[in-house]
Amino acid sequence: MSKSRSYAGTVDVDGLTYDWHLQSEPHLSDQAGWKGMTISLLQRGAKREALLEFPAPKRLLKGLPRGRLQLDDATISRCARAAMAAGWEPMSRGKPVVFTVDAEGN
Fold it and tell me: Which of 92, 100, 94, 95 is nearest to 39 (CA)?
């Protein structure tokens, strides 16, 4: 029996529901070196999503092997609050807004 890891979900933050999914895992970029994971976040019923970019894990920068990604509801909630504090307006129209967060999602 194989374990399937879920890289998508739903989280409630301050009475609003947000759907999220893992957009990209940490990877090596030709131009920028190691890039961290990116999460897509969309408020239910809204039109504009937020893309939240995490920094590359330090173990990758040191040449160590990749580890398991740690995504939980608390991290996603902090990401949603950080995006809102930075000016994300989910009900507006337009391209996805990109935000950079720290390793904890702040």
Answer: 100
In the block, residue with structure tokens 């194989």: 2
Helix ranges (H only) for the chain are 58-61, 73-85
And the tokens for 7? 């890289």
Q: pLDDT category, 82, cuts 50, 70, 90?
A: very high
Closest among 47, 36, 48 to 101, alpha carbons compared: 36
d(CA 29, CA 23): 15
- Asked whether 22 and 8 are in contact (CB, 8 A), the reply is yes
Return the sign of the alpha-carbon dihedral for residues 97, 98, 103, 106.
negative
Is 54 within 8 Å of 38 (Cβ atoms)? yes
User: Rounded to two decimals, what is the model's pTM?
Assistant: 0.79
How many CA atoms does the CB half-sphere of 67 hold within 13 Å?
Answer: 12
> What's the chain's Rg over C-alpha atoms?
14
